[in-house]
Description:
The chain is α+β, with helices and mostly antiparallel strands. The protein is built from twelve helices and seven strands. It folds into four domains: about 80 residues, no CATH class; about 100 residues, CATH 2.40.50.140; about 55 residues, no CATH class; about 120 residues, no CATH class. The longest helix has 30 residues. The mean pLDDT is about 80.
Amino acid sequence: MIGGFLPSGDYRLVTPAATVWLVSLVALAASTVLVQALAIAAGVVCAIAVASAWRGWVGWSTVSLVVVVGGMAAVTAGAIAFRLEARAVHPLSHSEGKTRVTAIIRDDAVALGPAAASRVRVRVDVDGVAGRQVAPVSAELTGGSSEWSELLPGQHFTAVVRVARPRGGDLMVARLSAVSTPTLLGRPPPHQRLAGAIRQRLQMVSARALGPEAAGLLPGLVLGDTSSLDAVVREDFRDAGLTHLVAVSGSNFAIVCGAAVMVVRIAGASPRVTAIVGAVIVVAFVILVRPSPSVLRAAMMGMVGLLALAGSRHAQAMPALGAATIVGLLWWPELAVAPGFALSVLATAGLVLWSAGLRDWLRDRGYRRDSPS
């Protein structure tokens, strides 16, 4: 135990993960110039610490923390500064009124609520403005449900939109409101077409086997697909505070991956092979249910358990959690301001740190798996 509270273990990646998280929070709320200055300052501090240790002025043990914190801060701030600069020079940042854009659908359309039941919101990557190709940058597009709700992720399209400034707090370049219907360019990637066919098949089977209200509820409970959910049922779930039941979360991954791991282990596979199979299942499930923030959070935390299983060592779970947090924040900095991501990391850390101790504590007091109580 460390200080009588934390169990002994490998905590080396906790500091880098905390540094990346803190710098991401600051960078998302700051201007491009300030983020660039932070990246340069952190890089200079890291370089001075390395040079001091290299010349023998101080020991590596003395400056190791400074090198780690400065290096991770420089990398994080530099990566976000690059994205902020790309957003600042993007044509949509200086556009007003209507323009034609070319973009790629990145997620399923989400209904805007009862007040705007006929409109949906969808995340897109804009790679063309007014017929000119540009570097892809994320944007939020709203449009009519009938035109946009059926488009699959990965679908390339062009449409006339009205441009508005982004809300802030993220890396989106603009808010777009569709003026025309989308003109499709090509087809979605094969894996997205397969995922769409599976989701559509589940809707058809549900419609044949269940009543009108339950038919739309089953795809939501299994895959988080609420596109066919009855408006009255949707509103009832919202009023009852149960909308999380029709959103993909850790429980879905636990059921799917747990079943796959159990079958593979019963077949006699090694922990490493079991972890590989579990990872493939996680990736396939993410594609099937769409890589929304809640899905990515659950997938990252599931990967933590699989990495620990691959090494057959409980002590590897904490480094795996730190690595997953670092990779997730560098890839998608907006996770730093998502309360759900913080709760997922804290919950997983709690399981990693204290589940074994709690199990032993209960066992020492007579609570066993086969106990009737």
